[in-house]
Amino acid sequence: MEPNFYSSLLSRRTLLLALAATSVNARAAPAEQAPRHSSVPGGVARIALGPAPSRPVAQQAQVPLLVVGDSSAWTAVVGIALAAPVGTAAIEVRTSDAASRSLHYEVRLKKYREQRLRVAPGQVDLSAQDQARYEREREHQLKVMATFSAPPGGDSLAMAAPVGGPRSSSFGLRRVFNGQSRNPHSGMDIAAASGTPVLAPLAATVIDTGDYFFNGATVWLDHGGGLLSLYCHLSETSVRVGDVLRAGDRLGAVGATGRATGPHLHWGVMLNRTMVDPALFLA
Question: How far from 265 is each of 144, 174, 216, CA to CA, in Å?
Answer without folding.
Answer: 20, 18, 11
